[in-house]
Structures are given as structure tokens and as C-alpha cells.
Design a protein that fits this description.
Distance between the termini: 82 Å
Number of strands: 0
Number of helices: 9
Strand content: under 5%
Largest sheet: none
CATH architecture of the largest domain: Up-down Bundle
CATH class of the largest domain: Mainly Alpha
Radius of gyration: 26 Å
Order of helices and strands: HHHHHHHHH
Structural class: mainly alpha
CATH superfamily of the largest domain: CDP-alcohol phosphotransferase transmembrane (TM) domain
CATH topology of the largest domain: Four Helix Bundle (Hemerythrin (Met), subunit A)
Helix content: over 70%
Low-confidence stretches: 222-229
Shape: flat
Length: 229
């Protein structure tokens, strides 16, 4: 069973909760903001050293990511603006978690853990660039859904590591650092291979010669008009 099937199964189980939220008059944006607030709390809990409890709270906050979309579909309010805000809130929630991890490892006794801090930086950079490459590809009319490690897998792996504790978390950060940066490179290569490159020199020379000919024709037409006058 892949992550998509797991997510769809979870959505089916959460359907009664979506119906209940609809009866309460909740909107998808409200649900998204509640989820973002909960993930922000999870980051603060992790920063204080509560890795296990912070992971539980983060899972709860992330669960709202499934509720807001289903609620929008139920209420017939699906829109590109909603999808845009949902994606932004997802990244902010992930950022809160990494901020909490950074604070946690920076304030450990004996000067903190510099290796873990470097790894967190690499994971954050990989996460940001992975999302950026996809967004930029879509901006130039291409698709980019490939990747060794996409957001769903990344969040699940990190959450499981938090549940298992610090000594599992550091090796997982090594894996995530390598995998996220590799995903960025994979997506760059994938998109670049589909985009047209510069024109060959011969074609460019022909285009320049044709443009020069057109300019000369325009000039000749202008001279003819002056003579006719």
C-alpha cells in the first residue's frame, strides 16, 4: 500500500468528522488556520524537548490538511485560491517543526549538537528547493511530480523519528538531508531535459540574416515612397 492509498483510507475514516464540521458551519479556511496553529504549537513543544508529544500534536495539526480539502469539496467551495493557501500553510507548518528542532538541538547541554543543526539546515534547504523547482516548472508550463522523497514521505519519516526519540532522529536527519537534496537535483535534471535549449548557431545566423533582409526591405520601401512623393 502506498502513501496515496493510506491517505485516501484515512480520509474515508474522517468523513463523519467532515460532515460534523460542516454542520457546525466551519469553513475550509478556518480549518486550515486551526491546523496551522496546532502545528505551530507542536514546534514549540519540540523546542522544549518534548519530541514524542510534539510529534503527536504535529500529526493532529497535519490531519487538518485532509479535513479542509474534503470540507471544501463537500461545500462546493473548491478554488485555486484555497489550493494556494493550503500549500502555503503546509510549508509553514513544516517550517514550525524545523524551527522547533533547531531550537532543541541548539540548546542541548554542552553547547548543543552542531552536526544536527547542519543536517536540519540541509533538510530545510532541500525541502524548499524541492518545492520551488516544482513551482517554477509549472510556471513555465511543465509538470514535475517526480522525486525520491516528496513532502508526504518526508513528513511521515520525520514524525516517526520524533516518536522514537533523539538517537533515532539524528540518523534520520542524515537520510533526509541526502534524500531531499537528491530530490532537488533529480527534479532540476528532469525539468531541464524537457525544456528547449538555445538555438543552434546555424539557425540563429539564418534568423539574423532574415531579420537583416527584412530591415533592408523596409528601408527600400521607405526610399521608394520618398521618390514617389
Amino acid at each position: 500500500m502506498d502513501f496515496t492509498e493510506i491517505k485516501n483510507s484515512a480520509r474515508g475514516r474522517l468523513r463523519p468528522l467532515v460532515l460534523f464540521l460542516d454542520r457546525l458551519g466551519m469553513t475550509p479556511l478556518t480549518i486550515s488556520l486551526i491546523g496551522l496553529f496546532i502545528t505551530a504549537i507542536s514546534g514549540w513543544i519540540v523546542a522544549q524537548g518534548g519530541l514524542f508529544f510534539g510529534a503527536i500534536v504535529f500529526v493532529i495539526g497535519s490531519g487538518f490538511d485532509m479535513l479542509d480539502g474534503d470540507l471544501a469539496r463537500l461545500q462546493g467551495t473548491v478554488s485555486r485560491r484555497g489550493a494556494f493557501l493550503d500549500s502555503c500553510f503546509d510549508r509553514l507548518g513544516e517550517a514550525f517543526l524545523f524551527a522547533g528542532l533547531t531550537w532543541y538541538f541548539a540548546t542541548l547541554p554542552n553547547g548543543g549538537d552542531p552536526v544536527a543543526l547542519v543536517l536540519i539546515t540541509c533538510v530545510v534547504v532541500g525541502s524548499l528547493t524541492t518545492s520551488y523547482v516544482r513551482a517554477r516548472a509549472e510556471g513555465v508550463g511543465e509538470t514535475c511530480s517526480v522525486g525520491f522523497l516528496q513532502r508526504t514521505e518526508r513528513v511521515i519519516i520525520l514524525t516517526l523519528a520524533l516518536l522514537l526519540g533523539r538517537w533515532v532522529l539524528v540518523p534520520v536527519l542524515w537520510f533526509l538531508a541526502v534524500a531531499t537534496l537528491a530530490t532537488t537535483v533529480q527534479r532540476i535534471v528532469h525539468v531541464a531535459a524537457k525544456l528547449p535549449g538555445p538555438e543552434p548557431k546555424l539557425l540563429r545566423a539564418e534568423a539574423e540574416a532574415e531579420a537583416a533582409t527584412d530591415d533592408q526591405d523596409d528601408q527600400d520601401d521607405g526610399n521608394d515612397q520618398e521618390v514617389g512623393q
